[in-house]
Amino acid sequence: MFELVKMRRARRLAHATLEPFLHRGLGGSDGLQAGDWLHPQIIGFLATLVTLLAQRACGPMRDHALAAVQSDVLNAVTGIGPELIGEEICLWSSRGDPAFAAGAVGAATFLEAMAGNIEPESGEAPDPTLALLWDEHVGHLLARSQRRL
User: Fold this and answer.
1) Residue 89 CB contacts under 8 Å (≥ 6 apart), including other chains
2) Each residue of 33-42: b (16+ CB within 10 Å) or e?
3) Residues in CB range of 129: below 8 A, 6 or more apart
């Protein structure tokens, strides 16, 4: 039962952290398709960030609980089904994909730049350093996808 409380808190925190970045630039994320998000660097960044946020805020969680939080949050953000997200994370991770690894490292840097503020205020404008890191690991890849349309 306690694990369910942790999972709920971790989901809310991840959504609150990602929300300001999803609606800035590019006219927001509304025009994006699930396939636009399916890039190893983006998924590495998002999956790692969700994991790190959950562990920092909620403490240790079992693997299946952490995977459920990841898949729920990534599905809500990207529209990619939970099964496919899980497969892609395992595939890119096991292959040591350099773009996936760059995204994971970027997520750790992003969390460090949050300076301990793991509970952002709703509607708060993104910190410029965090916005730069988001653009480096997610934003420019999404912009490239939209330009191809």
Assistant:
1) 43, 47, 70
2) eeebbbbbbb
3) 113
